[in-house]
Amino acid sequence: MVKVDRLETLIQRVVADEIMNHVKDNVGFITITGVRVTNELSFMYVYYTVFGTEENVAKTKEALERAKGFIKNQVAVRVKMRKVPDLIFKYDDSFQQGMKVDKIIKEIK
After folding, report:
1. Cα gap 18→11, rounded to integer Å
2. Residue 104 to residue 101: CA distance in whole angstroms
3. What are the extents of the domains in the chain?
4. 37 forms bridges with which residues in the sheet?
5. What mean pLDDT do residues 95-108 have?
């Protein structure tokens, strides 16, 4: 389990670096919030959040889908994995959910 945690942290760093420095598309103000690799190394889920409007989120999603192959290749090279899992980007809406809860709590007071 410790090796998987270290692998996930390393992949998160590599993906964030590649998006920040090498992806040419406009991905907006993006934060990679986490990575989860399945036990059999079939999939790596990269969770991200975007600061901005729904339009910014949609544009970022499209840009990430276009760059998916490049990012997966860079993970393979930099992490030196024998088997590179399929890369799946998932939007992390926990920040928006937290803001809704915070707003409800403030209204109750």
Report:
1. 10
2. 5
3. 2-108
4. 44
5. 85
At the topology level, CATH places domain 2-108 in GMP Synthetase; Chain A, domain 3 (3.30.300)
Instruction: Tell me the per-residue pLDDT of 37-73, one tens digit each, with 9 for 90 and over.
Output: 988 889 999 999 998 888 888 899 999 999 999 999 9
How many C-beta atoms lie closer than 10 Å to residue 95's C-beta? 13
For residues 68 and 19, what is the distance between their CA atoms, to the nearest angstrom? 10
Phi-psi group of 41: left, alpha or beta (phi > 0 → left; psi -120 to 50 → alpha; rest → beta) = left
Helix ranges restricted to H, the chain: 2-21, 54-79, 94-108
Whole-structure pTM value: 0.84
- pLDDT recorded at residue 86: 93
